[in-house]
Amino acid sequence: MTADISLIRSSFAAVQPHSSQVTEYFYDHLFTHNPGVRPLFAAHLDEQRDRLWAALGALVANLENTDTLTGMLQNLGRRHAGYGALAEHYPAVGTSLIAALRHCAGDAWTPAVEESWTAVYGVISSTMVAAGEAAQS
Ligand code: HEM
């Protein structure tokens, strides 16, 4: 991973006070650019927003704990296969997540921060997709 974990943590801390703005922006962005994924989600996203944020926080807290991180991502990936999330959806979700973080982080967002989040999302998505596909085969 070419991610700088301290940059991930400092940028996540910068958006933490605005978490509901981040998740709102994220879902708006995702559904505007990928209307086809909207039906996979429940009509009301209130709880879902909090769960997404809590999961991201847990992942950010465990970036150095490779075994814990991998186990969390595999479980998440297996559950997502059950929600109908496909490999092809993951890049779109990553784009929307990074757009939301960038929008809300203000001056805390730099090219190095973006590069680190892109690298971390690559690990998140590849681990989730592999576990989801293994669960379905
Ligand atoms: C950074 C990657 C992701 C994280 C951290 C994440 C996190 C979560 C969490 C915490 C939940 C709540 C249920 C649970 O814990 O199993 C959830 C549900 C869900 N996620 Fe994700 N997710 C990610 C990527 C994706 C992707 C790529 C899709 C594809 C469209 C997706 C679609 C869904 C759907 C459809 C639900 C169920 C929502 C509902 O019941 O309304 N997620 N996600």
From TrEMBL:
Entry coiled-coil feature ranges: none
One GO MF term attached to the UniProt entry: oxygen binding
Protein name: Globin domain-containing protein
InterPro entries named among the record's database cross-references: Globin (IPR000971), Globin-like_sf (IPR009050), Globin/Proto (IPR012292)
One BP term from GO: cellular response to nitrosative stress
Family per record: Belongs to the globin family.
CDD domains cross-referenced by the UniProt entry: HGbI-like
PANTHER family given in the database record: FLAVOHEMOPROTEIN
SUPFAM superfamilies per record: Globin-like
Superkingdom classification of source: Bacteria
